[in-house]
Design a protein that fits this description.
CATH architecture: 3-Layer(aba) Sandwich
Strand content: 15-25%
Order of helices and strands: HEHEHEEHEEHHEHHHE
Radius of gyration: 19 Å
CATH superfamily: Vaccinia Virus protein VP39
Bound molecules: S-adenosylmethionine
Low-confidence stretches: 254-258
Number of domains: 1
Number of strands: 8
Mean pLDDT: 93
Structural class: alpha/beta
Helix content: 25-40%
Largest sheet: 8 strands, mixed
Oligomer: single chain
Number of helices: 9
């Protein structure tokens, strides 16, 4: 089971993340994006990857070790707190702050980004991919099991207090943080296309979160997954979500640098 990182890779490269850069990655999760950033910045660059979950950080460390990447350092911190994890890092050290599907989990993403600005160089980049699940699902064929699957995922995110419209909020978030917003675009996540997680696999993967949010029982979920697998025809197009990609820059005239 693999998830496509091609959208994220295109975003990072188009935004200007490149060889030799020093990047601060927020909410690294199991390390897929840390690995991607490690490849893009290469041996002359480096990545500092932050997450609050020990489990995610162990998985990420394992991912990078397996890939033989040595230019990523991991740190455990809650991004909602003051960035004490940067206390020994020189100001204006980072060329970019980046991440995927992390701002949506933060209570005040603009405040978190604003708090990191002193560590971003003048002209440095903020590059994020965030989801929107409020304008989906989109389909013309009758696909009730798929619709139910997406509605369960949305309910779970709602119960978790996640901003399901974070993609739409990216430009305003950058701007409120004091960054200069430059560009946003979006891509549809089409069920079963490329390396996207098919919906049934995604539901299986997220089963513990779905159950702990009291959104669905194990037996209901198993039956729904079976229905989704039966219902899916290769000719039916089902849009299960949107990926928003956005870029901003720290102005040359902003304070915070030494
Ligand atoms: C949906 S995962 C995304 C992981 C990774 N960026 C990716 O796209 O594969 C969100 C990650 O953000 C982390 N996260 C959420 N809130 C956080 C916070 N307040 N501080 C640090 N990490 C946080 C979670 O632990 C999780 O690993």
């Amino acid at each position: 089971m693999r998830r496509s990182n091609s959208t994220t890779e295109r975003l990072f490269r188009a935004a200007g993340i490149s060889a030799g850069m020093t990047v601060l990655e927020l909410g690294c999760g199991p390390g897929e994006i840390s690995e991607l950033l490690s490849e893009i910045v290469g041996p002359a660059g480096s990545v500092l990857a932050v997450d609050r979950s020990d489990k995610m950080l162990s998985a990420a460390q394992e991912t990078l070790e397996k890939a033989g990447k040595k230019n990523v350092r991991f740190v455990r911190a809650d991004l909602n707190d003051a960035p004490d994890y940067l206390k020994d890092v020189d100001r204006a050290s980072f060329d970019a702050v980046a991440g995927r599907r992390v701002l949506m989990y933060l209570a005040s993403p603009d405040r978190v980004l604003a708090g990191l600005l002193p560590w971003l160089q003048a002209g440095g980049l903020a590059v994020f991919e965030e989801a929107d699940s409020t304008i989906c699902p989109g389909h013309v064929a009758t696909m009730p099991a798929h619709e139910r699957g997406v509605s369960l995922l949305n309910k779970m995110l709602g119960e978790e207090g996640v901003d399901r419209s974070m993609g739409f909020h990216l430009p305003a978030t950058f701007s409120a943080a004091g960054l200069q917003f430059e560009q946003v675009w979006a891509e549809a996540v089409i069920e079963g296309q490329g390396e996207q997680y098919p919906l049934a696999d995604l539901l299986r993967l997220l089963q513990p979160r779905l159950e702990s949010s009291d959104v669905v029982t194990t037996s209901e979920l198993e039956s729904l997954i079976a229905q989704i697998e039966m219902e899916r025809k290769p000719t039916d197009v089902f849009v299960s979500g949107m990926r928003f990609c956005a870029k901003a820059r720290k102005g040359e005239d902003l304070g915070g640098n030494p």
